[in-house]
Design goal:
By secondary structure, the protein is an alpha+beta fold. 30% of the residues lie in helices and 15% in strands. The strands form four sheets. The protein has a four-stranded antiparallel β-sheet, covered by helices on one side. It is globular. The protein starts with 10 loop residues before the first helix and ends with a strand.
Length: 206
């Protein structure tokens, strides 16, 4: 780059540009704050929908009021939960990815990390599509069972790890979005924590 030339504006112009950049940064921070507030508002609505589902330990199911029907999870699945694949990440970007476990949060699915993997290790059968319902089957006691609906605006070629399940739901009985919200509710979280097992204090499994 020894012979490369580029232009630098004068100091006065630089000051003007910096003011514009600072306003953009301030707007970006304000938008982040709004998004966080909306996520917390949505979370409150989700929790309120299941606010009467308490005393799980005593009743072994949730009292959800009139018009609700109790189902076991096996009754609303078309097929058994589909397990992902444990694939080692590589340092280079190959265009093929496996999700991080921390993509599933208390707010649902977040694009918190895609780990690149070798192309030959990519399983076409496990490729994720927007709208797939995922559940973490192994994590810490507080995080195991987190659920989320996969959405990737970039439509990357990604699979899910063996610490997650993909659920194929009978949507004539329950929508994936509703089931996700239920699985994230205190009622379901209590039941999941009760059935999660394992000798390791740092990793529990369903």
């Amino acid at each position: 780059i020894e012979g490369y030339e580029f232009y630098i504006p004068d100091v006065k112009a630089q000051a003007g540009i910096l003011k514009i950049l600072q306003r953009i940064a301030d707007q970006e921070e304000a938008i982040r704050s709004i998004i966080f507030a909306l996520e917390e508002c949505l979370r409150a609505v989700q929790l309120n929908a299941f606010k009467d589902s308490s005393d799980v330990g005593a009743k072994n199911n949730c009292e959800l009021g009139g018009g609700w029907i109790n189902y076991q999870i096996k009754d609303i699945l078309i097929s058994p939960p589909e397990s992902g694949d444990s694939v080692s990440a590589v340092d280079k970007d190959t265009g093929f990815y496996v999700l991080n476990l921390n993509c599933l949060t208390r707010h649902g699915f977040q694009t918190n990390g895609y780990k690149p993997i070798e192309a030959q290790k990519f399983s076409r059968e496990l490729r994720l599509s927007n709208g797939d319902l995922l559940v973490s089957r192994a994590n810490t006691a507080d995080l195991v069972g987190f659920a989320g609906i996969y959405k990737d605006e970039l439509e990357r070629s990604a699979i899910f790890p063996d610490t997650m399940w993909r659920l194929n739901v009978k949507e004539n009985l329950v929508s994936k979005e509703f089931l996700k919200n239920y699985l994230l509710s205190p009622c379901a979280r209590s039941q999941i924590k009760m059935i999660a097992a394992g000798t390791s204090g740092s990793m529990k499994k369903i």
